[in-house]
Amino acid sequence: MNTQDYRINIYQILSEALKEPQEEFGEEQQDIVDFLQSAFEALQYPIDSENYQLWPNLAKDINGLRNDYRLSFLYPAVKRVLPIESIYRQWTLDETAEVPFAKEKGHLMSDFALHMQALYDQYQLSIPQEYSSMPDHLCLELEFFAFLLENESIELQKVFMNEHLNWVDELYQDAVKQDIPLFYRQVIQVTAEFLKYELDKNLRS
User: Fold this and answer.
1) Residue 105, pLDDT score
2) If 0-12 CB within 10 Å is exposed, 13-18 middle and 19+ buried, where does residue 145 land?
3) How confident is the model at residue 160 (pLDDT cuts 50, 70, 90)?
4) pLDDT score for 94
5) What is the rounded CA–CA span in Å between residue 205 and residue 13?
6) What is each CA distance from 102 to 15, 91, 95, 134, 166, in whole angstroms?
7) In the chain, what is the straight-line distance between the N-terminal and C-terminal CA atoms, in Å?
8) Can you tell me the mean pLDDT for 48-52?
9) Is the pLDDT of residue 91 over 90?
C-alpha cells in the first residue's frame, strides 16, 4: 500500500468513527487499530498508539458505545461537544452582513458550511439527511477530503485542507474540558494529531 492509500483509508476510518456507531463497528476495531499503527509508521507520523490501542475494548459493547456517542455529541448540552466547523468559525466574513451574530462563533450554517454545501453540489455528491443542517460536520469533511485525495489535484487538496481542516485542535481541547467519554475523546485526539501532521506536510511541500 502506498502513502496515498494509507492517507485515504485513515480519513475514511476517522470519518466513520465520528458517526453514530453501527452493529459491526465494534468488531472492526482491532483491525482498525492494527491498520492505524502500520499507517502512521509508514507515513512517519509519530502518533502514540496508546491513544487508540484501547478502542477494541471501549467499543466491545455496542450499546454502551452508542450511549457514549450520545453523551459526547448530543446530550446533555452542557457537557457535549459539537464536531462541526461552523461552531469554531466566525459565522460570516461578509462585512456587510447585518445580523447581530455575524462576527460571533458558535452558530450553525456559517459561510464555511455554505461552502461545503456548494462543494457537494459541485461534485454532485449528496449530503445525508441527518447532516442537512450541518454540511460541515467533521465526519463529512474527512470523508470529502478522502474523495479529493482520490479525484483531485494536490493543489486543490491543499486549498481544502487549509480552508476546512485546521480547527480540530480546538475541538479536542473542548473534548478534554468537557471530559466526554474516552473513546470519542481519543478519536478526536487522534484526528487532531493526524491533521496536524497533514497540515505540516502541506506547508513543507
Assistant:
1) 83
2) buried
3) very high
4) 65
5) 25
6) 29, 5, 9, 18, 21
7) 21
8) 97
9) no
pLDDT tens by residue, 191-202: 999 999 999 987
Q: Any idea which residue has 446533555 for its cell?
A: 76
Q: What is the mean pLDDT of residues 139-146?
A: 98
For the cut 90, the answer to whether the pLDDT of residue 96 exceeds it is no
3-state secondary structure the chain: CCHHHHHHHHHHHHHHHCCCCCCCCHHHHHHHHHHHHHHHHHHCCCCCHHHCCCHHHHCCCHHHHHHHHHHHHCCCCCCCCCCEHHHHCCCCCCCCCCCCCCCCCCCCCCHHHHHHHHHHHHCCCCCCHHHCCCCCEHHHHHHHHHHHHHHCCHHHHHHHHHHHCCCHHHHHHHHHHHCCCHHHHHHHHHHHHHHHHHHHHHHHC
Three-state secondary structure along 135-190? CCEHHHHHHHHHHHHHHCCHHHHHHHHHHHCCCHHHHHHHHHHHCCCHHHHHHHHH
Q: How far apart are CA 37 and CA 177, in angstroms?
A: 27
Residue type, 69: Y
**Helix 154-164 × helix 111-122 angle, to 10°:** 150
Averaged pLDDT, 39-63: 97
